[in-house]
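The material for today's practical consists of a large collection of protein records. There is nothing in a record beyond a sequence line and a structure line. Backbone structure tokens are a discrete shorthand for how the chain folds in space. Nothing more is needed to start thinking about how sequence determines fold. As an example, a complete record with its sequence and its structure tokens follows.
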Amino acid sequence: MTYTDEVPYRDNLQLVSRLGKADLLAEPVQELVECGAEAVAYLCTACSIVDGVAGERALREAMLAYGAQRALTTSGAVTDALRAVGARRLAVVHPYQEPVDRLLAAYLSASGFDVAALTGLGLAAVEDVYAVEEQQVMDAVIRGDDRRADAVFISCTTLPTYDALPRLEERLGKPVISANQATAWALLDAVGEPAHGPHQ
């Protein structure tokens, strides 16, 4: 199977379990390397946490073996970003079905964080994530925040979060880190470039 083939699945766990295997990364990583990429990121939170901390490390090692100069995953970038803002106890908002949500909490716990709250968007099907609007994400974050949490993490690279982040931080009074934001920070850092996003 190549990365352009459709991955068959019946549920969220089956999908991310298949997409979280390193063998699917060979072709796309090699294509990016041939285009001159200085750093390569696997942009999917769930696919990079499904096999735990060891699985995340294996994905990075595979990307390096396939020729990437620097390799990272969204889940690894997220833990780095959360540590950078001094987070220890998290409120987590996500679009996943069970048991992927529990695997996310387990990954964060194994990475040294205390998950104080785990809030789903309540989507009926995997495909519904593509129709989520920014206001739905904001409502879920406000609903899912926990006063014990010193940061909020919004998981899933498909969710629209960029413009919502500064507004959420102002309202909640704490850092709000999204999967895409953390990955962008990590990629920029990997190639020695500063981030310039307004209010980010």
